[in-house]
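Technical note accompanying the year-one report. For the benefit of new consortium partners, we illustrate the data format agreed upon in the data management plan: each record pairs a sequence with a structure-token string. No post-processing was applied to the example shown here.
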Amino acid sequence: MRIAICDDDEQELMHLSELITEYQMSREVSLDCHLFHNGTELLCDMKGGDYDLVLLDVLMPGVNGIQAAQELRELDQNVKLIFISASPEFALDSYRVGAYHYLLKPADADAFFTLLDRIGSELFAQEEQGFVLKNRKGVVRVSFPQLEFVEVINKTVSFHMADGTIHEATATLGDFESKLLSRPEFIKPHRSYLVNLSYVQAIGANCIVTKRGNSIPISRQRRSQVQDAYMHFLLRTGTSSSASDAQAAASTAGQEHSNGPWRILLVDDDPVERTFWADILRRHGCVVQPAENGEEALKLAVDESYDCVLLDVMIPGEDGFSICERIRRLIVAPVIFLSCLTESDKQVEGFAAGGIDYITKDTPADLFWAKVETRIRLAVSDRTQFCFGPLLLDLTERRVLLDGEELFLTPIEFDILWRLSERTEHIFTPEEIFAMIWSGQPWDGGKTVQIHMSRLRRKLEKAWTQHYFIETVWGQGYRFVPADC
């Protein structure tokens, strides 16, 4: 851990330095510690990324601790700041500039050591999940799970994040290659690219298609290696329900349709019928998740996202019509009934339950696929408004209507509500929400999420007292609970 201590009181500076020496001996760790006598001296030394932890006195001549912290934050968003003062009156100001902690003088050894233990653990976890990148704008932390792919053009390396953010640095790909390729989810399909397999939608003969629609070239020499790596990754992580799904996903990019492979939830209790229809879907590049009954389908709908649900009517337990109504409250994917019941009244009942189409099982395979493909394409192209009872989210206009009245939300509040509503009943941890909305920023322990969630919930509850759309799950996080339509 690299530590800087800044205090104009020589006695206090020595006291903290001695505590750190004592800490090193008790924990048998090595710390790199530097001492500064004023804020100006510290800022002249800082370039960003030099220190993991800065201990700052608040009251110093010239540049005080709060002012120094503001400039430090511009250089490095990730550095942890601990303020030290003889009075608690500056605590609020310190947290406004992103303080990690506020200590009162003289620092107590037990409390200080506990604090260093916690910081050390967090830094170790961060190193396991990402790395610090220095560029012209300062210092940012690049998270491995949020990194979609890396690209180098001339002497500029671009880090494309899952939320669309791009971080650039003047370097070579080789500067990061060993760090990324030591992790099982990264591959090198081309001399100018590194790709996170977690974000791969499909792999074709000449390119990788990511889930955000980016096309990444595959060199001829690496083609087989990349496809094999993707197959092994899918099977190892359980992303695909079977080897045939993985094979379909890894070989059909750009062949059948530009948006594939689509994820299909196929609900049918007859294994023969289920295999028959699943094979047709897989031949067209779809990833199929089978379910034998309605309850299993509902659990899968909560845990995963799908582009379409194919639902038999005659299944054990609740019939398909009842399950359709429940699934539509959980996901926005179109539900298509697939049944041997050909009577017109059954088809009418299927549409009344919320099905977007009704395909009988005597339908030829090519017509079956044409209907499924068309319904998915239409749903994807038209999916700009989502209704949850009295709550309407309009993604095009980025506005929310509640019982017909507009609910005014900030851009961040809108994004939180939208992302939570995409997976209803799923419990989002504060870390998940922070990663989705503030990706690339240093984790603050949940304070930012708590503040915005509290404001969003108050607005929703004030506008609609009959139902709590966002529920706090004690000790776990938050979930979106749609109202009955």
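Partners are asked to follow this layout when depositing records. The two ends are 54 Å apart (CA to CA).
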